[in-house]
Hints:
By secondary structure, the chain is of the alpha+beta class. α7 (237-248) runs parallel beside α10, α15 (526-547) runs antiparallel to α16 and α17 (579-586) crosses α19 (611-634).
Amino acid sequence: MLRELGVRAPAPRHAIGLSRVPARALRRGPCSSRGLRLRDRGAGRRRRARLARARGPRRRHSARAPAEPVPPDQRRSRDRWLSRRSGRGALDARSRRPRRRAGEAVPRRASASPTRGDARAGGGVRRVVPPLGDVGRELGDPARGEPGDPLAARSTAATSPHCRPGDRRLSPGDRASRAAGVRAAADARYRLPPRPVALLSGSARRRAVGAHRRREPGWTAPVSPVLHDVIVVGGGPAGSTTSAFLARAGRRVLLFEREPFPRFHVGESLLPATLPILDRMGVLATVAEHGFQLKHGATFHDQESDYQRTFYFLTNKPWPSYSYQVRRSDFDALLLEHASKQGVDVCQPATVESVAFDLDGVSVAARRDGLPFTARARFLVDATGRDGLIATKLGRRERIPNLGKVALFAHFRGAERAAGRDEGNIRIHVFDDGWFWWIPLASDLTSLGCVMHARTVRRWPGSLDELYAEMIRRCPRVAAGLVCGERVTEIHRVANFSYMNGPLVGDRFLAVGDAIAFVDPIFSSGVHIAMQSGELAAGAVDEALADGRFTAARFAPYERAVERGLRPFFRFIHKYYEPAFFEVFLRPRTRFVLEAVLSVLSGGAFLKMGWGTRLALLVLFAGARVNLWTRRRAGRPVESRLEW
């Protein structure tokens, strides 16, 4: 997962606006930047002897008598030696071209390509930031000398094997001036004035660069003041959770939501491990009083073997032994309203059009009621779900192989309900062409969805309504439960819902919830992952606001925690579609393995998975391999149902 946005370029190797290192020193390679004393190391014996003859005999000083000071006109620098005996320039050990005395004019190159490392070339910057081109030149560093400042001779008194006591170590500017007195004046013509640069995204970046070059020197873009600490884009469970936790920590949060609430959304089944998050948010009591349907477990039915198994949530865990089946239109509105009560500024409906990151924060251009406006904050949280603001504009989206599924779903009234404790349990019906989810909701509503392979939809000649009815007919258990049911909503379609987005974190931004990834609805993990990542993100952002560090490396622990939490779901999803694993999954032989399965189904394996759970899952996967060999020997199908 996934990291290009917001990575600012480091300062160039040779800062623009300082005295240039001599061109010959740059051509000699990277070692010259550590001092010209490395110039003669590695040279052959004959070359060292030739250099010694060119320098003449050294004066040996007695330990008893102090060395006599050398007149300034006879001192020898460490990078060049001007002959005192003739008017000819001495030859360098690395170059056959004669040197020139101080004060002599040095003709400039006629070539169109400037010397490497020259301020005019900008070569160092282009190597660091290929996408930005010349914009990188405009970043000045006051600590090193702003571009346009007069050249200053920075000399430090030092001794060396090639200098007498009392000699000065000459700065690169002094060495360049002694070799060519006119170079400093000529270089002054190529210094660029400092101008702030805003790093935009996509086409906005190219437009800004073009306008930047056309501006007059000294132009400064207007910058709006920072009014908020964090901007959250997206008002679903992930965005509401992140903003609520940040507001409870005393941060100023602005939230953008594109759609007006309430609005229809899939993902109605919560996991027991989600309830402690709601409690820490301070909204659990409100959720409990709303009247959502209680859920005590999950029922799986395999049409091939006509075997059914109900898993009830455990009671000896840090989370409750129950959960809720919710209407997302009510649940999402409840969370967003709670975030607003915590102090979050909610801007709804509003569409975010562009995002621009700079060294001091982030600017978000949005439109509300047809009127554009700009908001500014120190940090951005992407909670835009499947749309993936960061992934769409500045990152990447990777489809998960073999999970190219399509879901058709709708709400029914009057469908069959189980009795007693099992009334609110989610039911999963696996049949030859896919699988159904059956989620009982409050007020006698039932959410019914069918997940099938994408090619099944492509090959279907009729409408989606006809395909949905045909899938119900092919699953007798579902058809029997809808005898008295009436569909009260239109049929909704979601395609290719399994993906991973990137980058997950960056300089001054991170992603939460479905903006990171979505695996599969089989285990109802979507809302839990959204809220769990939102809580983790709020903690990471709050710490970053406290210490003022917003680099991508600062949020590496958050990235690792999210990836570690997603890993068990990814592995279970791929194994779930294998008949050999699904058969063992429905019939765990030991309590040890059963508790591990229930930990995953409850969402408790996201943050921490103990060694006992890890070992139990290894036993489960090993049993699936043995069952694969058994099914193959018996002539039963072993191909993965991912090929539906």
